[in-house]
Amino acid sequence: MALVSPSLLAADFLHLDSEIEMINRSEADWLHLDVMDGVFVPNISFGFPVLEAVAQRCIKPLDVHFMIVHPEQYIDRTAKLGAMMMNVHVEACRHLHRTVQEIHNAGMKAGVTLNPSTPVSMLEDIIEDVDMVLIMSVNPGFGGQDFIENTLTKVARLRRMIAGSGSKALIEVDGGVHAGTAPRLVQAGVDVLVSGSYVFRSATPEHTIHELRELK
Ligand code: DX5
Ligand code: ZN
């Protein structure tokens, strides 16, 4: 069984209130929020005004994924939202260890994120200090892309690294997660599934969340 963190990026932005109510009623474990700056990734999503509004209504723990340069500049504001998890990209952090420390000092859990071409070996010297590794299974920037199959090998490699260290880090996978890919990810030992379009474009999103959580 894996936890499910639906990605709000695929929600109906004209009706965020009812989308958040759906998440609140559902069995979703967390809510995944994708912040994009048009620099680190070739797309712009939403920023703090939207995060603050969502944080006021959403009863689920917030799993915030920053696809931005200099995420360290936003640690305090993210903590003020009451976010549970702050995910930063390894590729965006020159001093990743310091950033992870600052996220912890601000009272949040720290997630480190890998682009598809970034090897898990980049994490060898920080794996014991992080709460989660977010493996991108698409190139970040857009919802609705095809799952990159190499992700399964990468998850297995990360599982071995975690097992061989004292780390208790969770493994989260983000991008192209749907009925065709989620069972294999759960089998490979993924702890948290992020799913955007598959959940929000479903005719019965609450049931889709339930089904993802039931996978063995
Ligand atoms: C992509 C984002 C994802 C995105 C996933 O850059 O990080 O969270 O919303 O969307 P789907 O599930 O549609 O691939
Ligand atoms: Zn994401």
Automatic annotation (TrEMBL):
Residues that, per the record, bind substrate: S7, H65, G141, F142, G143, G144, D174, G175, G176, G196, S197
E.C. number: 5.1.3.1
List of catalytic residues: D34 (proton acceptor), D174 (proton donor)
Binding annotation for a divalent metal cation: H32, D34, H65, D174
Reactions this protein catalyses: D-ribulose 5-phosphate = D-xylulose 5-phosphate
Cofactor note as given: Binds 1 divalent metal cation per subunit.
InterPro entries: Aldolase_TIM (IPR013785), Ribul_P_3_epim (IPR026019), Ribul_P_3_epim-like (IPR000056), RibuloseP-bd_barrel (IPR011060)
Cofactor: Mn(2+); Zn(2+); Co(2+); a divalent metal cation
Enzyme's top EC category: isomerase
Keywords per UniProt: Carbohydrate metabolism, Isomerase, Metal-binding
Pfam families on file: Ribul_P_3_epim (PF00834)
One GO molecular-function entry: D-ribulose-phosphate 3-epimerase activity
Pathway(s) the chain acts in: Carbohydrate degradation
HAMAP family reported for this sequence: RPE
Function: Catalyzes the reversible epimerization of D-ribulose 5-phosphate to D-xylulose 5-phosphate.
Family, per entry: Belongs to the ribulose-phosphate 3-epimerase family.
Official protein name in the record: Ribulose-phosphate 3-epimerase
Source organism of this protein record: Xylanibacter rodentium
